[in-house]
Amino acid sequence: MRPIYPIDEEQCRPFYGHPVFIILKDGTELIGTLSRLDKGKLYLNETAAGIQSNPSAPAKSKRSGTGGRSLGKARSQAKKSGNPRTTATNETLPVPYPDSGLFGGPFELDVASVGALIVPS
Description:
Blueprint: E1 2-3, H1 9-12, E2 19-24, E3 29-38, E4 41-44, H2 48-53, H3 68-81, E5 107-110, E6 114-119
Antiparallel strand pairs: 1-6, 2-3, 2-6, 3-4, 4-5
């Protein structure tokens, strides 16, 4: 078992999609799949589709310096395909996270309430 400390995005990012054991400051123990850390909250058991639909999730653009004409064409093709577009932030994440359904539905925790965040070695 390996603790994640400090609990910040830099330390958590390598473990997105992995199971974690959480001990809250009140002694409550939780198990879940680490989805992301955003604005002081830990999100667990989300699927990648849930992250994409979250309006607070940061989206990064890879727009090139080409004219607006090619951008318009890309938009029209995306609408025709019916497939959701992914952002650069979410392209490297498994879709859906492996075993995300094992630990119940998605939930969030304030980082301030977490006493320990531990990942299996």
